Structure formats: structure tokens, C-alpha cells
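Researcher: Sequence recovery benchmark, item below. Answer with residues only.
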């Protein structure tokens, strides 16, 4: 089981200038919603952004991390983005849930 602080530190290895918000979706330490906001994403496609984060996180999937919902955006996009996170295992088929404030446990 890993914590939100650890996830944040790992993401910052890939995108040092980012603002990183991590939510432990099930409070289980293995299902996370990660919101990454960085100016360096400007001009990049969404998949390119995610690949930067996954380059440091893939070694931790599927153990200790089972599910990782990434939302990578520029500050301008973050201002207008929705307040939801996707839980890939919510209800058995995946659901969008209201994003809660960052958990530090």
C-alpha cells in the first residue's frame, strides 16, 4: 500500500514544475486519481502528457498500484475542468465521482 505523498513525489520526478493532486479513490492505497497541472503541457496532446507520467509510474503497476486515473492539463485547462475523477472499478464498470480534496494520510 502506498500513500498520496509518495504518488505526488513520483509524479514530480517526471514533471518537476507540476502541481499534483492525488486522491486515494478507495482509501486502499492502490487506486488513485492523479491530477497533474503544468505549463509544460502546453502544445502537447493528452496521450503525450500521460506518457511522461507513466514513464515513472509504470514500474509500480500493477503492484503496488492497481489503478491510476491520470488527468494531465495546463493551468488554463485546469481552471475550467470538471470536478470529477474517474474510478475505473467503481460499481464494477467504472463511474465518475466528485473529486474530493486531496487526502494526505
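Model:
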Amino acid at each position: 500500500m502506498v500513500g498520496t505523498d509518495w504518488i505526488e513525489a513520483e509524479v514530480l520526478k517526471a514533471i518537476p514544475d507540476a502541481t499534483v493532486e492525488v486522491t486515494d479513490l478507495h482509501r486502499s492505497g492502490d487506486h488513485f486519481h492523479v491530477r497533474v497541472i503544468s505549463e509544460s503541457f502546453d502544445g502537447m496532446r493528452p496521450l503525450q502528457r500521460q506518457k511522461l507520467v507513466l514513464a515513472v509510474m509504470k514500474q509500480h503497476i500493477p503492484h503496488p498500484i492497481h489503478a491510476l486515473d491520470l488527468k494531465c492539463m495546463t493551468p488554463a485547462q485546469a481552471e475550467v475542468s470538471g470536478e470529477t475523477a474517474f474510478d475505473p472499478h467503481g460499481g464494477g464498470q467504472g463511474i465518475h465521482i466528485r473529486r474530493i480534496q486531496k487526502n494526505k494520510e
